Amino acid sequence: MEMRVRLAVLITRLVRGGAQKIALETFRRMDPARFDRFFITGPDRGDEGDAFDEAVASGIHPIIVPGLQRAISPAADASAVLRIASLLRRLRIQILHTHTSKAGLLGALAGRWVGTPVIVYSPHGHIFGKGARIPGVSGSIRTRILYRLRRLAERWSDRVIALNDADLQEQVALGLAPVEKYVVIQNGIDLSAYRNLSDTREAARRSLGLANGTPAVAVVGRLTPEKGHDVLIEAFSRLAPDLEPVLLIIGGGPQESELRESSRRLGVESRVRFLGVRRDVPDLLAASDLVVLPSYYESGGLALMEAMAARRPVIASRTGGVPDLVQDGENGLLVPPGQADPLARAMERVLRDPALAERLAAGGHRKVTDHHDIDRSARILQGLYAQLIQEKGLR
Predict the structure, then answer these.
(1) pLDDT for 328-363, tens place per residue?
(2) How far apart are CA 161 and CA 104, in angstroms?
(3) Which of 14, 96, 315, 323 has the largest count of CB atoms under 10 Å?
(4) Are 186 and 377 in contact (CB under 8 A)?
Protein backbone atom coordinates (compact mmCIF):
# COMPACT_ATOMS: atom_id res chain seq x y z
CA MET A 1 0.00 0.00 0.00
CA GLU A 2 1.39 3.41 -0.98
CA MET A 3 2.11 5.96 1.71
CA ARG A 4 -0.31 8.88 1.82
CA VAL A 5 1.48 12.17 1.13
CA ARG A 6 0.63 15.48 2.77
CA LEU A 7 0.60 18.11 0.02
CA ALA A 8 0.22 21.88 0.37
CA VAL A 9 -0.27 24.23 -2.58
CA LEU A 10 0.59 27.87 -1.88
CA ILE A 11 -0.29 30.82 -4.12
CA THR A 12 -0.12 34.52 -3.33
CA ARG A 13 -3.62 35.55 -4.45
CA LEU A 14 -6.70 33.59 -5.44
CA VAL A 15 -7.87 35.86 -8.25
CA ARG A 16 -9.18 34.97 -11.70
CA GLY A 17 -5.89 34.52 -13.50
CA GLY A 18 -3.99 31.89 -15.44
CA ALA A 19 -1.66 30.83 -12.61
CA GLN A 20 -4.57 30.53 -10.21
CA LYS A 21 -6.57 28.46 -12.68
CA ILE A 22 -3.67 26.02 -13.16
CA ALA A 23 -3.04 25.77 -9.41
CA LEU A 24 -6.70 25.04 -8.67
CA GLU A 25 -7.29 22.65 -11.56
CA THR A 26 -4.19 20.52 -10.92
CA PHE A 27 -4.80 20.54 -7.14
CA ARG A 28 -8.35 19.32 -7.68
CA ARG A 29 -7.06 16.43 -9.80
CA MET A 30 -4.54 15.08 -7.29
CA ASP A 31 -5.61 11.57 -6.25
CA PRO A 32 -7.33 11.87 -2.83
CA ALA A 33 -6.41 8.25 -2.12
CA ARG A 34 -2.72 9.23 -2.30
CA PHE A 35 -2.69 12.82 -1.05
CA ASP A 36 -3.96 14.75 1.96
CA ARG A 37 -4.37 18.14 0.27
CA PHE A 38 -4.24 21.70 1.64
CA PHE A 39 -4.65 24.86 -0.44
CA ILE A 40 -3.11 27.99 1.09
CA THR A 41 -3.42 31.57 -0.17
CA GLY A 42 -3.49 35.22 0.85
CA PRO A 43 -6.61 37.35 1.41
CA ASP A 44 -6.12 39.77 -1.52
CA ARG A 45 -8.93 40.03 -4.07
CA GLY A 46 -7.82 41.96 -7.13
CA ASP A 47 -9.62 43.81 -9.92
CA GLU A 48 -9.33 40.65 -12.05
CA GLY A 49 -12.16 39.18 -9.97
CA ASP A 50 -11.63 36.63 -7.21
CA ALA A 51 -11.79 32.86 -7.48
CA PHE A 52 -12.69 32.03 -3.87
CA ASP A 53 -16.31 31.12 -4.61
CA GLU A 54 -15.21 29.07 -7.60
CA ALA A 55 -12.71 27.17 -5.45
CA VAL A 56 -15.26 26.44 -2.71
CA ALA A 57 -17.85 25.32 -5.27
CA SER A 58 -15.34 22.75 -6.55
CA GLY A 59 -14.73 21.41 -3.04
CA ILE A 60 -11.56 23.33 -2.25
CA HIS A 61 -11.59 25.28 1.04
CA PRO A 62 -8.58 27.62 1.05
CA ILE A 63 -6.59 28.34 4.19
CA ILE A 64 -6.04 32.12 4.36
CA VAL A 65 -2.67 33.54 5.46
CA PRO A 66 -2.98 37.19 6.58
CA GLY A 67 -0.06 39.24 5.29
CA LEU A 68 0.49 37.11 2.17
CA GLN A 69 0.09 39.73 -0.54
CA ARG A 70 1.48 40.71 -3.92
CA ALA A 71 2.88 44.07 -2.79
CA ILE A 72 6.28 44.16 -1.10
CA SER A 73 5.96 44.96 2.61
CA PRO A 74 8.77 43.85 4.95
CA ALA A 75 6.47 43.67 7.97
CA ALA A 76 3.65 41.82 6.20
CA ASP A 77 6.10 39.53 4.39
CA ALA A 78 7.85 38.56 7.64
CA SER A 79 4.50 37.87 9.27
CA ALA A 80 3.45 35.74 6.31
CA VAL A 81 6.64 33.67 6.47
CA LEU A 82 6.02 32.96 10.16
CA ARG A 83 2.40 31.97 9.51
CA ILE A 84 3.30 29.77 6.54
CA ALA A 85 6.07 28.07 8.53
CA SER A 86 3.65 27.43 11.38
CA LEU A 87 1.13 25.88 8.98
CA LEU A 88 3.73 23.67 7.32
CA ARG A 89 4.90 22.39 10.70
CA ARG A 90 1.41 21.91 12.16
CA LEU A 91 0.04 20.18 9.04
CA ARG A 92 3.22 18.04 8.73
CA ILE A 93 3.52 18.94 5.04
CA GLN A 94 5.79 16.70 2.98
CA ILE A 95 5.41 18.44 -0.40
CA LEU A 96 5.02 22.20 -0.71
CA HIS A 97 4.16 23.40 -4.21
CA THR A 98 4.39 27.18 -4.54
CA HIS A 99 2.92 29.23 -7.38
CA THR A 100 3.85 32.79 -8.49
CA SER A 101 6.71 34.99 -7.35
CA LYS A 102 5.86 36.11 -3.83
CA ALA A 103 4.52 32.74 -2.68
CA GLY A 104 7.55 31.12 -4.30
CA LEU A 105 10.00 33.14 -2.23
CA LEU A 106 8.14 33.20 1.10
CA GLY A 107 7.07 29.58 0.78
CA ALA A 108 10.59 28.36 0.00
CA LEU A 109 11.98 30.34 2.94
CA ALA A 110 9.35 28.96 5.33
CA GLY A 111 9.75 25.44 3.97
CA ARG A 112 13.51 25.44 4.34
CA TRP A 113 13.17 26.86 7.84
CA VAL A 114 10.91 24.07 9.11
CA GLY A 115 12.48 21.29 7.04
CA THR A 116 9.71 20.56 4.53
CA PRO A 117 11.16 17.60 2.59
CA VAL A 118 10.08 18.61 -0.94
CA ILE A 119 9.55 22.08 -2.40
CA VAL A 120 8.31 22.52 -5.97
CA TYR A 121 8.06 25.99 -7.52
CA SER A 122 5.85 27.08 -10.42
CA PRO A 123 6.74 30.71 -11.21
CA HIS A 124 4.45 30.70 -14.28
CA GLY A 125 7.01 32.37 -16.49
CA HIS A 126 9.17 35.34 -15.59
CA ILE A 127 9.05 39.12 -15.72
CA PHE A 128 12.57 39.74 -17.00
CA GLY A 129 11.98 39.58 -20.77
CA LYS A 130 13.00 42.55 -22.87
CA GLY A 131 9.99 44.70 -23.66
CA ALA A 132 7.82 42.96 -21.06
CA ARG A 133 6.41 46.31 -19.84
CA ILE A 134 5.39 45.02 -16.40
CA PRO A 135 4.04 48.06 -14.48
CA GLY A 136 6.40 49.24 -11.74
CA VAL A 137 8.90 46.49 -12.57
CA SER A 138 10.32 46.50 -16.09
CA GLY A 139 13.38 48.66 -16.60
CA SER A 140 13.65 49.74 -12.96
CA ILE A 141 15.96 49.06 -10.03
CA ARG A 142 13.10 46.96 -8.72
CA THR A 143 13.75 44.53 -11.56
CA ARG A 144 17.24 43.84 -10.20
CA ILE A 145 15.91 43.34 -6.68
CA LEU A 146 13.18 40.98 -7.87
CA TYR A 147 15.72 39.11 -9.97
CA ARG A 148 17.85 38.37 -6.90
CA LEU A 149 14.80 37.31 -4.90
CA ARG A 150 13.64 35.08 -7.73
CA ARG A 151 17.05 33.37 -7.82
CA LEU A 152 16.72 32.62 -4.12
CA ALA A 153 13.25 31.14 -4.58
CA GLU A 154 14.42 28.88 -7.40
CA ARG A 155 17.60 27.79 -5.65
CA TRP A 156 15.74 26.98 -2.41
CA SER A 157 13.30 24.76 -4.35
CA ASP A 158 13.93 21.14 -5.31
CA ARG A 159 12.36 21.54 -8.75
CA VAL A 160 11.20 24.52 -10.81
CA ILE A 161 8.43 23.97 -13.34
CA ALA A 162 8.89 25.69 -16.70
CA LEU A 163 5.91 26.16 -18.99
CA ASN A 164 7.67 25.11 -22.18
CA ASP A 165 11.15 24.70 -23.67
CA ALA A 166 11.47 28.41 -24.43
CA ASP A 167 10.58 29.32 -20.84
CA LEU A 168 13.17 26.83 -19.53
CA GLN A 169 15.90 28.12 -21.84
CA GLU A 170 15.20 31.75 -20.95
CA GLN A 171 15.36 31.05 -17.22
CA VAL A 172 18.62 29.15 -17.57
CA ALA A 173 20.08 31.94 -19.73
CA LEU A 174 19.06 34.46 -17.06
CA GLY A 175 21.02 32.44 -14.49
CA LEU A 176 18.02 31.88 -12.25
CA ALA A 177 18.92 28.25 -11.53
CA PRO A 178 20.97 25.42 -13.09
CA VAL A 179 19.30 23.52 -15.93
CA GLU A 180 19.03 20.26 -13.96
CA LYS A 181 16.65 21.92 -11.50
CA TYR A 182 13.97 22.50 -14.18
CA VAL A 183 11.24 20.26 -15.51
CA VAL A 184 8.82 21.22 -18.28
CA ILE A 185 5.13 20.66 -17.56
CA GLN A 186 2.99 22.38 -20.16
CA ASN A 187 -0.13 24.17 -19.07
CA GLY A 188 -3.46 22.62 -19.86
CA ILE A 189 -7.13 23.52 -19.78
CA ASP A 190 -10.35 21.69 -18.98
CA LEU A 191 -11.37 20.68 -22.50
CA SER A 192 -14.84 19.63 -21.38
CA ALA A 193 -15.81 23.30 -21.00
CA TYR A 194 -15.24 23.84 -24.73
CA ARG A 195 -17.26 20.98 -26.19
CA ASN A 196 -20.46 21.65 -28.14
CA LEU A 197 -19.84 25.40 -28.29
CA SER A 198 -21.27 25.52 -31.80
CA ASP A 199 -24.66 25.03 -30.14
CA THR A 200 -24.24 28.21 -28.08
CA ARG A 201 -22.71 30.51 -30.72
CA GLU A 202 -25.89 32.12 -32.01
CA ALA A 203 -27.34 32.63 -28.54
CA ALA A 204 -24.09 34.20 -27.37
CA ARG A 205 -23.99 36.53 -30.37
CA ARG A 206 -27.59 37.59 -29.77
CA SER A 207 -26.81 38.34 -26.12
CA LEU A 208 -24.01 40.65 -27.30
CA GLY A 209 -26.24 42.33 -29.88
CA LEU A 210 -24.06 41.16 -32.77
CA ALA A 211 -25.85 41.30 -36.11
CA ASN A 212 -25.59 38.41 -38.54
CA GLY A 213 -22.43 38.75 -40.61
CA THR A 214 -20.71 41.16 -38.20
CA PRO A 215 -17.15 39.86 -37.57
CA ALA A 216 -16.24 39.74 -33.86
CA VAL A 217 -12.60 39.92 -32.73
CA ALA A 218 -11.98 38.91 -29.11
CA VAL A 219 -9.14 39.38 -26.65
CA VAL A 220 -9.07 37.81 -23.17
CA GLY A 221 -6.75 39.09 -20.47
CA ARG A 222 -6.12 41.54 -17.67
CA LEU A 223 -6.08 45.17 -18.78
CA THR A 224 -2.46 45.98 -17.98
CA PRO A 225 0.28 47.43 -20.24
CA GLU A 226 2.17 44.17 -20.82
CA LYS A 227 -0.91 42.58 -22.43
CA GLY A 228 -0.75 44.92 -25.44
CA HIS A 229 -4.38 46.01 -25.66
CA ASP A 230 -3.17 49.45 -26.78
CA VAL A 231 -1.59 47.95 -29.90
CA LEU A 232 -4.68 45.85 -30.60
CA ILE A 233 -6.99 48.88 -30.49
CA GLU A 234 -4.61 50.76 -32.76
CA ALA A 235 -4.54 47.84 -35.22
CA PHE A 236 -8.31 47.45 -35.01
CA SER A 237 -8.75 51.10 -35.98
CA ARG A 238 -6.73 50.47 -39.16
CA LEU A 239 -8.95 47.68 -40.49
CA ALA A 240 -10.74 48.41 -43.77
CA PRO A 241 -14.08 50.16 -43.13
CA ASP A 242 -16.07 47.64 -45.18
CA LEU A 243 -15.33 44.87 -42.65
CA GLU A 244 -17.26 46.68 -39.88
CA PRO A 245 -15.95 44.37 -37.13
CA VAL A 246 -16.59 44.54 -33.38
CA LEU A 247 -13.82 44.18 -30.79
CA LEU A 248 -14.73 42.28 -27.61
CA ILE A 249 -12.35 43.09 -24.74
CA ILE A 250 -12.86 40.47 -22.03
CA GLY A 251 -11.23 41.19 -18.67
CA GLY A 252 -10.71 44.00 -16.19
CA GLY A 253 -7.77 45.95 -14.87
CA PRO A 254 -6.19 49.32 -14.15
CA GLN A 255 -5.72 50.30 -17.82
CA GLU A 256 -9.42 50.27 -18.72
CA SER A 257 -10.01 54.05 -18.66
CA GLU A 258 -6.87 54.64 -20.75
CA LEU A 259 -7.98 52.05 -23.29
CA ARG A 260 -11.47 53.53 -23.48
CA GLU A 261 -9.93 56.92 -24.19
CA SER A 262 -7.75 55.37 -26.88
CA SER A 263 -10.79 53.86 -28.61
CA ARG A 264 -12.50 57.28 -28.52
CA ARG A 265 -9.43 59.05 -29.88
CA LEU A 266 -9.10 56.55 -32.73
CA GLY A 267 -12.76 56.81 -33.66
CA VAL A 268 -13.71 53.19 -32.92
CA GLU A 269 -15.49 53.68 -29.58
CA SER A 270 -18.83 52.47 -30.96
CA ARG A 271 -17.28 49.18 -32.11
CA VAL A 272 -15.20 48.36 -29.04
CA ARG A 273 -17.02 46.52 -26.22
CA PHE A 274 -15.47 46.39 -22.76
CA LEU A 275 -17.12 43.32 -21.27
CA GLY A 276 -15.26 43.23 -17.94
CA VAL A 277 -14.47 40.09 -15.94
CA ARG A 278 -16.73 37.30 -17.15
CA ARG A 279 -17.45 33.72 -16.10
CA ASP A 280 -18.84 32.76 -19.52
CA VAL A 281 -15.58 33.05 -21.47
CA PRO A 282 -16.19 29.85 -23.50
CA ASP A 283 -19.50 31.26 -24.78
CA LEU A 284 -17.89 34.61 -25.60
CA LEU A 285 -15.17 32.85 -27.54
CA ALA A 286 -17.83 30.87 -29.40
CA ALA A 287 -19.45 34.18 -30.38
CA SER A 288 -16.19 35.48 -31.84
CA ASP A 289 -14.66 34.94 -35.28
CA LEU A 290 -11.04 35.61 -34.35
CA VAL A 291 -9.08 35.74 -31.08
CA VAL A 292 -5.97 37.89 -30.66
CA LEU A 293 -3.23 37.77 -28.02
CA PRO A 294 -1.25 41.02 -28.54
CA SER A 295 1.03 40.73 -25.47
CA TYR A 296 4.43 42.37 -25.38
CA TYR A 297 5.59 39.33 -23.43
CA GLU A 298 3.82 36.05 -22.67
CA SER A 299 5.36 32.95 -21.13
CA GLY A 300 2.52 30.48 -21.65
CA GLY A 301 -0.63 31.80 -23.28
CA LEU A 302 -3.51 30.10 -21.46
CA ALA A 303 -5.98 32.41 -23.24
CA LEU A 304 -4.67 31.09 -26.56
CA MET A 305 -5.29 27.50 -25.47
CA GLU A 306 -8.86 28.39 -24.57
CA ALA A 307 -9.43 30.02 -27.95
CA MET A 308 -7.97 26.99 -29.72
CA ALA A 309 -10.18 24.66 -27.68
CA ALA A 310 -13.16 26.79 -28.76
CA ARG A 311 -12.02 26.20 -32.37
CA ARG A 312 -11.36 29.88 -33.06
CA PRO A 313 -8.49 31.07 -35.31
CA VAL A 314 -5.82 32.91 -33.32
CA ILE A 315 -3.26 35.65 -33.95
CA ALA A 316 -0.57 36.17 -31.33
CA SER A 317 2.64 38.05 -30.66
CA ARG A 318 5.83 36.16 -31.47
CA THR A 319 7.21 36.42 -27.95
CA GLY A 320 8.23 34.24 -25.01
CA GLY A 321 6.70 30.78 -25.12
CA VAL A 322 3.98 31.62 -27.64
CA PRO A 323 5.80 30.07 -30.65
CA ASP A 324 5.86 26.76 -28.74
CA LEU A 325 2.08 26.83 -28.90
CA VAL A 326 1.39 28.60 -32.21
CA GLN A 327 3.13 27.42 -35.35
CA ASP A 328 2.82 30.31 -37.78
CA GLY A 329 0.51 29.47 -40.67
CA GLU A 330 -0.40 26.04 -39.30
CA ASN A 331 -2.55 26.64 -36.23
CA GLY A 332 -2.47 30.42 -36.00
CA LEU A 333 -0.59 33.50 -37.16
CA LEU A 334 2.35 35.16 -35.38
CA VAL A 335 3.15 38.88 -35.54
CA PRO A 336 5.88 41.05 -33.99
CA PRO A 337 4.88 42.37 -30.53
CA GLY A 338 4.10 46.06 -30.22
CA GLN A 339 3.51 46.71 -33.95
CA ALA A 340 0.02 47.71 -35.08
CA ASP A 341 0.46 47.47 -38.87
CA PRO A 342 1.49 43.77 -39.05
CA LEU A 343 -1.27 42.92 -36.59
CA ALA A 344 -3.88 44.81 -38.64
CA ARG A 345 -2.76 43.03 -41.82
CA ALA A 346 -2.97 39.62 -40.14
CA MET A 347 -6.43 40.36 -38.73
CA GLU A 348 -7.72 41.49 -42.10
CA ARG A 349 -6.22 38.44 -43.77
CA VAL A 350 -8.09 36.03 -41.47
CA LEU A 351 -11.36 37.97 -41.50
CA ARG A 352 -11.42 38.04 -45.34
CA ASP A 353 -10.48 34.39 -45.84
CA PRO A 354 -12.95 31.92 -44.26
CA ALA A 355 -10.99 28.93 -45.58
CA LEU A 356 -7.82 30.15 -43.88
CA ALA A 357 -9.73 30.87 -40.68
CA GLU A 358 -11.17 27.34 -40.63
CA ARG A 359 -7.79 25.74 -41.35
CA LEU A 360 -6.08 27.66 -38.55
CA ALA A 361 -8.94 26.91 -36.15
CA ALA A 362 -8.82 23.18 -36.92
CA GLY A 363 -5.04 23.10 -36.46
CA GLY A 364 -5.29 24.93 -33.15
CA HIS A 365 -7.99 22.58 -31.92
CA ARG A 366 -5.80 19.56 -32.72
CA LYS A 367 -2.82 21.13 -30.98
CA VAL A 368 -4.61 21.86 -27.71
CA THR A 369 -6.50 18.55 -27.69
CA ASP A 370 -3.32 16.53 -28.18
CA HIS A 371 -0.97 18.44 -25.87
CA HIS A 372 -2.82 20.77 -23.48
CA ASP A 373 -5.46 18.77 -21.62
CA ILE A 374 -5.34 19.69 -17.90
CA ASP A 375 -5.83 16.01 -17.00
CA ARG A 376 -2.56 15.23 -18.78
CA SER A 377 -0.76 18.10 -16.99
CA ALA A 378 -2.04 16.86 -13.62
CA ARG A 379 -0.90 13.30 -14.28
CA ILE A 380 2.61 14.51 -15.15
CA LEU A 381 2.69 16.69 -12.03
CA GLN A 382 1.55 13.81 -9.83
CA GLY A 383 4.34 11.72 -11.33
CA LEU A 384 6.85 14.45 -10.45
CA TYR A 385 5.64 14.46 -6.84
CA ALA A 386 6.07 10.67 -6.67
CA GLN A 387 9.59 10.91 -8.12
CA LEU A 388 10.65 13.56 -5.60
CA ILE A 389 9.20 11.64 -2.66
CA GLN A 390 11.22 8.62 -3.77
CA GLU A 391 14.39 10.70 -4.23
CA LYS A 392 14.03 12.02 -0.69
CA GLY A 393 13.66 8.46 0.67
CA LEU A 394 10.21 9.14 2.13
CA ARG A 395 8.79 5.76 1.07
Answers:
(1) 999 999 999 999 999 999 999 999 999 999 999 999
(2) 12
(3) 96
(4) yes
* Residues of the chain by 3-state class (helix, strand, coil), percent to 5: 45, 15, 35
pLDDT of residue 180: 95
- CATH homologous superfamily for the domain 191-371: Glycogen Phosphorylase B; (3.40.50.2000)
Rounded Cα distance between 142 and 86, Å, is 30
**Continuous segment of H or E residues that includes residue 35:** strand 35-41
Domain boundaries, the chain: 5-188+373-391, 191-371
**Burial readout 298-323 (b: 16 or more C-beta within 10 A, e: otherwise):** bbbbbbbbbbbbbbbbbbbbebbbbb
Residue 2 confidence (pLDDT) above 70: no
**Architecture of the domain whose range is 5-188+373-391:** 3-Layer(aba) Sandwich (3.40)
| Cα–Cα distance for residue pair 63/244, rounded to 1 Å | 49
pTM of the model: 0.91
What is the band of 1 on the pLDDT scale with cuts at 50, 70, 90? very low
Confidence of residue 14 (pLDDT cuts 50, 70, 90): very high
Picking from 130-139, 224-233, 302-311, 337-346, which range would have the lowest pLDDT averaged per residue? 130-139
Could you tell me which of 375, 367, 228, 348 has the C-alpha nearest to residue 289?
348
> What residues have CB less than 8 Å from 332, skipping those under 6 apart?
304, 308, 313, 314, 315, 316, 326, 360, 363, 364
Whether the CB-CB separation of 11 and 99 falls below 8 Å is answered with yes
Q: Side chain identity at 185, as an amino acid letter? A: I
Quick check: 199 and 282 in contact, CB under 8 A?
Answer: no
Round to whole Å and give the CA distance between 104 and 154: 8
DSSP secondary structure of 295-321: -S--SS-HHHHHHHHTT--EEEES-TT
Does residue 38 sit in helix, strand or coil?
strand
What pLDDT shows up at residue 282? 95
Average pLDDT of the chain? Answer: 92
Alpha helices in the chain (DSSP H): 18-28, 52-57, 74-90, 101-114, 141-155, 165-173, 201-207, 229-237, 256-265, 281-287, 302-309, 322-325, 340-352, 354-371, 374-391
Judge if 5-188+373-391 and 191-371 fold alike in CATH terms.
Answer: yes
